[in-house]
Each structure stands twice: as structure tokens, then as C-alpha cells.
Amino acid sequence: MAVKLPIYMDHHATTPVAPEVFEAMRPYFLERFGNAASRNHAFGWAAESAVEAARSQIALLIGCKPVELVFTSGATESDNLAIKGVAQAYREKGTHIITSQIEHHAVLDSCKRLQKDGFQVTSLPVSRDGRVDPADVAKALTPKTILVSIMLANNEIGTVQPLAEIGRLCKERGVLFHSDAVQGVGKIPVNVDALGLDLMSLTAHKLYGPKGVGALYVRMGKPRVKLVAQMDGGGHEKGRRSGTLNVPGIVGFGKACELAGQLMAGEAARLTALRERLWAGIRARLDHAHLNGHPTLRLPGNLNVSFEYVEGESLLMSLKDVAVSSGSACTSASLEPSYVLKALGIGEALAHTSIRFGLGRGNTEEEVDYVCDRLAEQVTRLRAMSPLYEMAQDGVDLNTAQWSLH
Ligand code: PLP
């Protein structure tokens, strides 16, 4: 069967809205357009009850109470609200925050902002396969630590972090635990109690919902997390985030979570098999291809590969009918090698040759095979122009090679 071009394999950047999600949203743009805060007429009541139904759908997926969810404009806002909101609320208790070097910029830059404001931040390193060691968290905790923020799964290398172990440590020490879980929710089972989380950031557009809507889970009992709101205004969301609710977006977010809950087990198995097919297909066709991240403890749909001796951007440009990414979509405007790959200890040269494949609901075996063929073609073509590749083929060790006569 001929594949339909272009092929989308960048599901970490965003996902298409599922048709069922789109249909669920439609009436809330048209006939049921009310403001969920309008308490005195049927339009408002319809909007409010749709928002509450969505809140329950999302809560069910992550094992929390509906009231513990605060709707936001997406995970960037959720991360900001969690980190700055906790820091400001607990300043009297302490001013130390622990995070990791491979967090999304929404977390890293929120922490940087707090550093300018007098907080101390410890950014933990990760292992070669991208995992935070819980023992490092234990060592970094001090009596002044108020928050640990470690992502569930990385957006570039897909590595899944040992959150349950870190959560137990935080609980023992009475420290709040936040996770940016946007890449994992809807892909792998997530339960806030099992992971020991007090705060968790979510976004709809990574799980076949619409862009521009997200949520922050904020634990309400044992402990009851305090938060300083970052948005002042009408006091929506129990004062935790002011602003008129994006009703169609929230309805879509709820439907996307419901669908994800139903499809997750089957999709995880299917995408893991597709990912392994892609990796096997690459290795069968090409030498000098290196896997980045953990071989098994990774998101089902994530594959990150360095194609040695090939510049990643040139490879991207040559794969015109395949949408993949070199490094994170959010930073692909710059040509700096990915800070995530650098944190794994991958050299700058190899980091520049990496491609992130994000497989998702629409991808098929035929597409994977097509991508393997195109990759083999283009990598071989680009390597034919690389003097370094030629030297490596001739058995020259590039690390010890003498480059000049002086
Ligand atoms: N956190 C992670 C891990 C992400 O991958 C992204 C999106 O790329 C975000 C946060 C930002 O999410 P949003 O686009 O909803 O602001």
C-alpha cells in the first residue's frame, strides 16, 4: 500500500486533534458558547457543567480528585504556576529547589527566575541513558528544600524517570514534589498517589487534544499544597488561576483524556513494536547509528538516534516528506546542540547528528519502512560527501588522528 505523504513523526512536538475530540468541542464554539462563570442563565450553566465533566475525565486518567485540577493555557503556564507559586508560598519555610538538567525550558527558566530572586536551585545530572538517580535527590535534599521538580518523561529522548522512588524520598522529608508530566500522560499509566506527586503539569495538545489548554494538579489533602496565584483577576479556579475558561478547549482536553484511557494499553504495545521496527530497520540499513536515551525505560513512541558523520539539520532538510525533529521542537530555531544530549555526556559533534522520531496514533508499519528507506538513502548520500566518514571507513581513528604536521 502506498504511503500518504508527508508523514508526521513528530508527536512530541504536538499531536493532531482526534476526530472524536473535535466533535465533542464543536457545540461549545457554536450553540453552547456560554461563559462558565455566568451563574445566572442556562448558557453559563451548560458551559460550567461541561467544564466539570471534563475535569472529572482528566482526574480519572491521573487518579486525582476533580477539584485538585486547575485549568491553565498549557504546560508552560502550569510549570510556572507550580514552581513560582510554591516558591512564593513557602519562602518562609525554605528557599531551595531541586530539579534536573534535562527539564523543559518552562521548568528550567522558572527556576532561573527564582534564582535571581534569591532562591537556590540544584540541577541534578543524569546518567548516560538519561535517568535521574534517586540517591542524588536524597543527597541534594537539605532542611531548606521546599520543592523537587523532575519530569515524568523527557521530550527529546523519551526516558522515563523513577518518580515513585523520588516521591517516597520527598514524602519522608516533607518536601513537595512536582512533575512536568506532559509527555507521559495518556501514553503510560500515571497515578499521582502511586508516584507520590503533589503537583503535576499537563497539556492537551500532546495527547490528541487542542493546543492552548492545560492543567495543573495541586494536591488538596495530606499535604494541602499552598500556591500563590500568578494571574490576578476574577478569581476563577478557586482563586488559583484567574481568566475566563477556554470551554471548548477544556471539553476537548477531557475527551482526549477519556480516549487516551481507553486506548493506552493497545497503543503503547503497538507503538513500542513500531519503534523497535524503526530502530531495527535503521540498524539493518546503516552503520554508525547510536541510540540516545534508555533502551527500554522510554516512551513507547520515542526513538532518538545519532547518525554519526551526518549533520542532523542537513538530514532533516533532505527528508522533506518526513516530519521529524532534531532536538526539541521548542529550541529547533537555534542551532545549539541539544542541552539534553549534552547532559547525557554525548559529545557536541555526535549531538549535532541526532534525530528525534515521535511515533503516534496515526503511524503505520508501511510508514516506518518508508522512513527507514529514505533515511538510508539520505544518510548514505550525505556520508559520501563526508571526508570524516571516508577516513573512518579507512580505519583511521578520528580521536587520535594527527591533523597537522606541526
Ligand atoms: N513540558 C514539556 C516536557 C514539553 O514537551 C512541552 C512542549 O513541548 C511543554 C512543557 C510546554 O507545553 P505547552 O506547549 O503546553 O506550553
Characterization of the model:
By secondary structure, the chain is of the alpha/beta class. It folds into 2 domains: 7-13 and 264-387, Aspartate Aminotransferase, domain 1, CATH 3.90.1150.10; 19-259, Type I PLP-dependent aspartate aminotransferase-like (Major domain) (Aspartate Aminotransferase, domain 2, 3-Layer(aba) Sandwich), CATH 3.40.640.10. It contains 12 helices and 12 strands. The strands form 3 sheets. It has a 7-stranded mixed sheet with strand order 2-8-7-6-5-3-4, with helices on both faces. α1 packs antiparallel against α7. The chain is globular. Residues 328-332 have low confidence and may be disordered. Bound molecules: pyridoxal-5'-phosphate (PLP). The site of pyridoxal-5'-phosphate has 13 residues, from α3.
User: Looking across the biggest beta sheet, what order are the strands in?
Assistant: 2-8-7-6-5-3-4
Named at the architecture level, the CATH assignment of the largest domain is 3-Layer(aba) Sandwich
Any idea of the CATH topology of the largest domain? Aspartate Aminotransferase, domain 2
Biggest sheet details: 7 strands, mixed
- Count of β-strands: 12
Q: Helical element count? A: 12
| CATH class value of the largest domain | Alpha Beta
Instruction: Supply the number of structural domains.
Output: 2
What molecules are bound to this protein?
pyridoxal-5'-phosphate
Q: Which consecutive residue ranges, at least 5 long each, have pLDDT under 50?
A: 328-332
Query: Compute the gyration radius: what is it?
Result: 23 Å
Q: Give helix and strand order, one letter per element, not per position.
A: EHHEHEHEHEHEEEHEEHEHHEHH
The CATH homologous superfamily of the largest domain is called Type I PLP-dependent aspartate aminotransferase-like (Major domain)
Determine the mean pLDDT. Answer: 95
Cα distance spanning the termini: 59 Å
The gross shape turns out to be globular
Structural class: alpha/beta
β-sheet strand percentage: 5-15%
Helix content: 25-40%
